[in-house]
Design a protein that fits this description.
alpha+beta, OB fold (Dihydrolipoamide Acetyltransferase, E2P), 2 domains, 5-stranded mixed barrel
C-alpha cells in the first residue's frame, strides 16, 4: 500500500503552489525558517517538470531531504555572509539609546540620583564623583541596565 499514491502524476504546479504558500507564511511570521522548505518545493516542482515519473514517496523523501539540506546550508551561509552580523548596541536597549544625549538633573544624593531626558526620568550615577544642583545639564556617557552614567556638560 502506498501512502502517498495521490502524489503520483501530480502537476509540478502543486509543488510550486505549496512553495508560494510556505513563502507567504514565512513573510507573515518572519521566522527565516520556512524559506528553505519553500525553496525545496520549488526544486521538486522543477524536478517533476523535467522527470515527471517520480513516485509519491520519492517526492516526499526528496522534499524532506532537500528541506533539511537547504536549511542547514542556508543557516550556515547566512551566519557566515548574512547581514554582516553587525551588532547594534542600542537595539532593544533604551538606556543605551541615551548615550551622548544631554539631560537635566532632578536630584542627586551622593553619586546617584535622577535626571530627565525628553521628560522621562532616569536613574543616573556620576562617573567621576561630581556634584550638581537641580536643573544642571549633564551628558550621558554610558549605561548599565536602566542606570545612566553621567558627567557635567
Amino acid at each position: 500500500m502506498q501512502v502517498f499514491a495521490f502524489l503520483e502524476g501530480i502537476s509540478p504546479w502543486w509543488w510550486l503552489s505549496f512553495a508560494v504558500v510556505l513563502g507567504a507564511v514565512e513573510m507573515a511570521t518572519m521566522s527565516f525558517f520556512l524559506i528553505w522548505p519553500a525553496l525545496a518545493a520549488v526544486i521538486i516542482a522543477i524536478w517533476l517538470t523535467v522527470l515527471p515519473g517520480l513516485s509519491g514517496e520519492g517526492q516526499i523523501a526528496a522534499f524532506a531531504l532537500l528541506s533539511i539540506l537547504l536549511t542547514f546550508l542556508g543557516r550556515t551561509l547566512m551566519t557566515r555572509f548574512g547581514d554582516g552580523a553587525v551588532e547594534n548596541p542600542t537595539l532593544n536597549s533604551r538606556s543605551n539609546q541615551m548615550i551622548d544625549r544631554h539631560g537635566k538633573v532632578v536630584s542627586f544624593t551622593g553619586p546617584e540620583g535622577d535626571i530627565t531626558i525628553d521628560g522621562i526620568r532616569w536613574r543616573a550615577r556620576w562617573v567621576d564623583g561630581s556634584r550638581s544642583k537641580p536643573n544642571d545639564t549633564v551628558l550621558v556617557t554610558g549605561a548599565e541596565g536602566m542606570t545612566l552614567f553621567v558627567k557635567p556638560s
